[in-house]
Amino acid sequence: MNRGIILICFSLVIAVCMMLPVHAQSSRQQLNTIIVDPGHGFPDPGAEGKYSCEANIVLAIAKKLVKKIQDSLPGIKVLITRSDQNLPGGLHDKDLANRWRAKFANENHGDLFVCIHANDAPPDHHSRIVDYRTRVYYTGKGKSRKRHVRKTPIYHRWTTPSSAEGTETYVWAVNKNDDKQQFIQRNQDSAELYGEEKDSTLPDMTTEEKIMASIRTRKYFSRSLLLANLIQDGYKQQGRKIHAYVGNGVKQRNDKGIWVLQATAMPSILSEVGFISNPHEEDYMNSQSGQEQIASALFQAIVAYKNQVDKGLIH
Prior knowledge:
Elements: H1 3-19, H2 23-26, E1 33-38, H3 54-72, E2 77-80, H4 94-107, E3 112-119, E4 124-139, E5 146-160, E6 168-170, H5 177-186, H6 207-237, E7 250-251, H7 259-262, E8 268-275, H8 279-286, H9 288-310
Parallel strand pairs: 1-2, 1-3, 3-8, 6-7
Antiparallel strand pairs: 4-5, 6-8
Helix pairs in contact: 1-6, 3-9, 5-6, 6-9, 8-9
């Protein structure tokens, strides 16, 4: 039997296994390690509101989420990428900090990556006519030249803080599937994926390993989409506004990928929990009740996600 037939048979067996009910797997816990990542810090403040910054808000929410997981799901290991404003060793470059986050998640063999951010939007612009001025202009030349008068409005222009509000949760963009697959193939073993020196001793990936990585990539995308929808449903049930023209507020950013989502070898989401540029939402996100409510929505979504994964209801 030639190699091509073997590979086809191998891929078919794997595909069939992925589609069958997972009765054997449903009896064991599949969600063992959760990575919670409060965005920014290190010491980047992120977006800034009238009196607070994104890094502090999402850190407070992340700590509440971690405690809920520890208290209610003792069989799950939960790790937070930072517990204050700084990384171990102090990484001040945003790109290096994000690479560290992904590497931390991969090296700790996370089964789920939950990144928390706060959104930002430019101020709202307004104008109104306060008066008119007379403008003189001419048309034609020579004897045909004529004088004209017209009135033009004088505007008063001003801005107010952004009225943008609501939540949105991201999964990695489908056009980043190849990038995601690279990290799934090599996980933490491939230093060059994190901008480090390549280890020339690593063997090339076999075709079988690439097939398995491709299957896992599709599985992780389905699971990421499930969690993102559960999170947005939770926000909606709390009465939060969904920041979307249509749909549930689950989004992909195709113009510019979100690096930590595509560089983590596991299901991964990024939740924007509100707009710090909106004074009402800034107050809400800084309040103990608001932070507790947001953390509860995230936690309940994780519990629902865990139940579906452990029961084999999603592959």
